Task: structure prediction
Amino acid sequence: MATQVVMPKLSPTMEEGQLARWLKKEGDKVTVGEPLAEIDTDKATMEAQALAEGVVRKILVKEGETVPLGAIIAIIGQPDEDISALLSQAQSGEATAENKKNIDESVKADGDGAQTELAQVVPDGARTRATTQGQPLKGETEGTSAGQEDKPSAKATEQPTQPRGDSVKASDNGQSSQAGGRLVVSPIAARMAAEAGVNLQTLTGSGPGGRIVKRDIEAAISSGKLRANSPQEQPQESQAQASAQTAPQAYVAPAVEGASPYRDVPVSTMRSTIARRLVSSIGPVPHFFLTTEIEMDRAADLRRQLNELDAEMKVSINDLIIKVAAAALVQHPSVNASFQDKVIRHYERADIGVAVAIEDGLITPVVRGANTKSIGQISREVRELAERARSRKLKPEEYTGATFSISNLGMLGIDEFTAVINPPEAAILAVGAMQPKPVVRDGEITVRQIMRVTMSCDHRVVDGATGAKFLQTFKKLLENPVLLLA
Amino acid sequence: MAVITMREALNQAMREEMHRDENVFLLGEEVAAYQGAYKVSKGLLEEFGDQRVIDSPITELGFAGLGVGAAMVGLRPIIEFMTFNFSILATDQIVNSAAKMLYMSGGQFKIPIVFRGPNGSAYQVSSQHSQALESWFAHFPGLKVVMPSTPADAKGLLKSAIRDDDPVIFLEQERMYGNKGEVTEDENFTIPLGVADVKREGTDATIVARSLMVPLALKAAEELEKQGVSIEVIDPRTIRPLDTATIINSVKKTNRVVIAEESHAFCGVGAEISAQIMEHAFDYLDAPVVRLSGVDAPMPYAKNLEKLALPDVARIVAAVRQVAYLD
Amino acid sequence: MSELKVTPLKPRAQQGEAATVAAKTTVIEGKPTDTINPSNLREEHKRRQNQQQARISDTDREALLRMLYHMILIRRFEEKAAEAYTLGKIGGFCHLYIGQEAVAVGALAALRPDDYVLTSYRDHGHALALGTSPDEVMAELYGKAGGCSAGKGGSMHLFDADKHFLGGHGIVGGQIPLATGVAFAAKYKGTDQVTLCFFGEAAVNQGAFHESLNMAQLWKLPCIYICENNQYGMGTSLERSMSLSDVSKKSGGYGLVGEFVDGMDVLAVREATARAVERARKDSLPSLIEVRTYRFMGHSMSDPGNYRTRAEIEKYQERDPLKVFSANLKQKGVINDAAVKEIEDRVRAEVERAIKFADSSPEPAPEELYTNIYANPIKQ
Result:
């Protein structure tokens, strides 16, 4: 039965792809998992794999051509099969739109957090396969058994259980083996996969609802490629999970270029309950707020000195706040984290998002690794990012993936406010105006530069005391910036 | 070997066992002078006399209890229910007396008795006369429940049931009394209770069927063979104790199971087999077990509705295709 | 008065004592068996006293002493069982036989050792009267391995194969078809053994009773059906549950012999049973005997008994079968106080020993849970 090959979604941000090079030509035999073409995405050149067995019957996209996700780029079928219906469908663009819609929905279903998580263990191509293979093929009839002799894996007795039209059934249900983030697999298939070292995540189930069944494993085993690429991935994942229970896990590289490496700590049952209950109480991110007053005289002195000593320096109080926040985050890793449903993700670096008001909106450029940068560096970077933000020239990776954010409305004369967390970050600091206020020091009334900050916390990650301790450190550092040298 | 009907096979079994042991007697409604409502006891009255082949009044609770009492003091009664629909009246004696006597007497009184008769659907006799009750009896420890599907099995199993020292519920099928098959004339031939029979070997899916469903399952298997699907048909033959091992071994081989039964699905024998498979062969399943049971409604009279109420070959084929992911 | 005129809604007790005890003559082969005249109870008691004394004269001393011993044994055993029950040594249901001793003792005194006996759950007395060791009966009540049913039956399910005691059965009337089958087997095998089947009057309303009587007379089975009519089916009086409350007359519906007997007279019970046994043994015929008795205790140990008055119980206690029998024996000079004391002492020692035995008997081993389910277990 003929199968359409579509422009696969090979990166989370990919909208369209350019066909760089065909690795097969019309008439070539292909097996499942064999590279079919090279695709240029917005990030890299990647391989698109064949998802069905047969012969490349028709190539629909020329090398160098750019097509949207889900566009049919080729048709794989049996040599003598009638593919005219599929062809006309492809050319009408009908299937493309539907494919695109399905892809979008599957991405949505994966969820933001799960998306990058999954990307770690599953090659993007494989994930795409589950959602794009075997779209409903109108007018296609099943039941041709031609070419069965070619299948190396098929036991004589199991011939009828080999794919044929089964993927149609699976996609009729509009589901994939990984629908809802859960792998649907029959017990015997799971067992065989474990024994043979087949990575289930790389498979598409041919059973109802996309269930991975015995024949899918048999097919995977017979296709050498799947077997070869699986052993490293699967054990690695389970190893990582196992070690997370005991020793801290090493930080892993992120999917988004430039983003902070991270390590995932499994969400405990209690934590999961807290998360669920709080969310049901107030929206998806359960906020709570901590406010403190900070005496800014020393910080203001430090800023003045820095700017006086170096003509190049244009350090703002906000730059100091960024530096101090980053330093405090390093001391309080549980605040430098995000809630990822099954895990709490702790970040290695403090990547601080700085809210910048722009016309018609707000954007939050990220100062990467603020904890490792000098105040001067931070200052220069913030100024440069803000400038480009206002001219809307920021690249996505420059305004996504912060681990903590700061919003400062002090320059607008706001004394105190609360900010809304930018998910999946666990907290955001709302900074008010610094102003002289009478305070009591050593029993006497005196005037000090006072600034009020309010931290909004994601209660699923940060509890009251955790946030308070962070703020304590933050306040202490800001009131005694000399400690940054310590 | 001779080709005889199931009716004749059952008759032979009783005749042989009555010759073998004078403590064996047959009692039930119309078993003697009438020669049996379904002619299963044909000729026995002439051969053994009215002291051993006894026509009972229509008094199911009474004669079931009478049989149990006689068994307490050494007789080996065969109690025939004209149909098992009427055994419902006798369940107190079967369940409370026969099944429990050995246990609550601390092992002092065994009950070697066979309750036999047709069970399951008949032709157009509506709700009260067309029902399968095996799950009722199979529920109770202390009872053994047997359901033959061929003349040879019927003979071998009934002989074992009569020789057995425990109460045996022996469930025949009215629609199958005329079914023919090869049966040995060897009087020493018996089939042990508690042993399932692989009626057909195959590799792609297992059909567990009993009684009336066995010939249907075999027909379905032939059909499926034409479609290239290799089917194993297992007939448990004894429902309690159930030969779980044979079923599990088959599941380990085929990974897919369809259970065909006449009885209602809810709390039925199919549910039990399905649970056993889940408990003992979960990791070998490639698809959820499918039960193909009598519909969840009383048996209707109308011919067309009656046909719809029971599994048939086409539905068994479809169920197999479902578990084998062929549709 | 004719019982057919009785309206079910109106309790017969309110229509005068006459109706309750008016077990009118039941005819066996044209001869009346017994009657109770309720109009003058004092006179009636006197008459019955004379009757029993006359029977004493006709009975050999050894048999009389054996019956007295068994009645005292049952009485003291049951008293001790009641105590043990309140101490939590005995669990579940515990139906005592106090007040009904004359029935089991009298009836079983008419049997041969190879005859069979079945009864309901009120079975302690029958087991003891048959000679089952009090040790084993008490141990069974205690749920111990040394019990006569190995601790698996309990109070309601005493069995003793050696004594041909085929059980206490828990479903009202359930033992009646069984007994019919035992009698059937005796006839089938050509022995002259008879089967005694005891049951309460409430069982008479069960289909099993009617089905059994029909089969027994139809097939001429040597089964004797003894209805222990203690006048209460748990808390429901006879009048409130039975349209025709003369149980012995039910035999007429099936054409078998029916007798009515005063259950407070152990010798009357023995005599009536003996007649039935003879019919069964010689002619293989069944009989129905209604034995009018009274239980002095509740239905079971957990019965508050507020469905009958203290006065009613006391009225019957005047004719306590043990007191009556003991007094008549003394009056007839069969025994003296010393002899009674000797029996009482012996019984007391036996019951004490039974309690000790039951206490010290081990609990059934856990593996006993799965034994005796099948005589021919099939390994899976």
Notes: The first strand of chain B starts at residue 2 and ends at 5. The mean pLDDT of chain B is 97. Residues 156 and 189 of chain B are 6 Å apart (CA to CA).
